[in-house]
Amino acid sequence: MESLKFTTLIPCKSSSGNLARPKLAANHHDVISQVGFAPLRNRRSKTEALRLRATFSSKAGSQDGASVVEDQKEEEKGVKFGAERDSSGSVIGFNLSPPNGEVATDNGSDRIEIAEDVSGKEKPRAKAKVTRSIVFVTAEAAPYSKTGGLGDVCGSLPIVLAGRGHRVMVVSPRYQNGTAADKKFSGAIDVGHTNVICFGGEHEVAFFHEYREGVDWVFVDHPSFHRPGNPYGDSFGAFGDNQFRFTLLAHAACEAPLVLPLGGYTYGQNCLFMVNDWHAGLVPLLLAAKYRPHGVYIDARSVLVIHNLAHQGVESAVTYKNLGLPAEWYGALEWVFPEWARAHALDRGEAVNILKGAVVTTDRILTVSEGYAWEITTVEGGYGLNGLLSSRKSVLNGITNGIDVVEWDPSTDKHIASHYSSNDLSGKVECKIALQKELGLPIRPDCPLIGFIGRLDYQKGIDLIQSGIPELMNDDVQFVMLGSGDVQCQDWMRLAEATYKDKFRGWVGFNVPVSHRITAGCDILLMPSRFEPCGLNQLYAMRYGTVPVVHSTGGLRDTVVNFNPYAPGGGEGTGWTFSPLTKESMLAALRLAIRTYKEFNDSQALRLALRTYKEYKPSWDGLMKRGMEKDFTWESAAIQYEQVIEWAFIDPPYVA
Question: Which residue, 130, 248, 274, 598, shows the most beta carbons closer than 10 Å to its own?
């Protein structure tokens, strides 16, 4: 494979040590590709040695944005750098070519990346028709930090978009909680710092950078991100300074594309900010109120992605002055609680709502499923923002999340007892037997095994499971639950296990390998969620041939197609949905699934009659195979994201 060599890259800092923001032209060109430079800091090249130095100065009379390429040592076949400039003279990139037109070769590891498949052969990737500079701003991104679906999205989607030709940066906090998880940030190095003005003063934040899988992973470092617990709280509840912590994140994320010369040059002003949930919600407000009035980010756009509308970043109105926004912008975040929700008779209910401000000022709005995009415009699902979101229906869309089809692949999964595929399902029975053995359940391949994986809280419908278990345990079934959360629910799981020793198992906590084994070993996955913006477990289940039984809401309704045994070709559908959200509806759907399962398996095991075997075996077999063959890849989702991004650039940006 061909390679390009640099010797070193000098960080661009002003005399004060802060990263000075260069002036870039508003019509900054789209980036086609980039060369990662993270590995280049650790050593110098012995041949074709060139020094790349970008100099930015905020002093008067300096040439802001000018880049100097010094030929430190040029041998016969050295690589030449030709600066590419826009109409204003600002450097927007470099052309790399040897003097004789040939590509320089070397055995080093600093190479332009080409997508490869697992066999090591080059695998061509579909490229986007129009490429953009995309900046994800998020409170979590797997594998560095993750508490749920948000981390999965911001850890997977950027990589796929980068593979399609976009230049992608992910800006997220650099959490340090004193555990082994801190090592996940070990590959990121300090590339500079800047000052953020908010909460009555200047706060210094550092930027750490790692170039991995074609993506610039930028981590904002500040002491407020260094504490035990998860990104949002600990065992005592949510952190009291979350508004401060994520205000720092938003301000730093707006500066990063302007001041960080990643790969040799900045992202510049002509970029698309992908704003995830309220934690990043100040970004579109800052673009409109802080930057555009001064001619910066004139051509930038923002897309707000709502993963869970229940969390909106609401704080007392007196905290508005801390956000670093002009006083006249208070109305964009103004929020007044209804009288019934106020603390006392003298409480005026005045607050600021960061997510509301983002909804007002962003260019496009996305949710993580089409069903959820509709639900948030209703009184039941809008959490007080339904009227505002309804007024912006013209820019509101839903895109179903994808899943990591490499990690979640029953044909290669290292966590399960036996591998299988839609062409050969024999390994699934072995996974079921292994799971029953691991959990201490009676080994019964013919007994329907129902699973639940998720948080133990009200949203996930745990109360329905609790009320339905006594009746369900009268049937010939086994049930296993994996999750943590509400302490009373955890105690109930332990009690249920003691009561139904041969039928019920509860695993308190969360364990990734166990979640894979439950997904592979169960016949049915139950998800009675009250609301589910997208849901991932039903996608994992179908990928593993486990039939989902779900409440008809949000992303669950979008992704699970009701089974119809009378459809041409032996039936259609991938599972069962139920509504309304009651114990009776849930049990009816479960028993319908169990009946289909048992009639298929009894006919197979006892060989009662050829007619019965042929009638039911294709039904359950078809359910499994149709689910396994569904396309829930991130590649499919990325194409839809690209369409929304192009729509965002069609209309003018938000201006007050």
Answer: 274
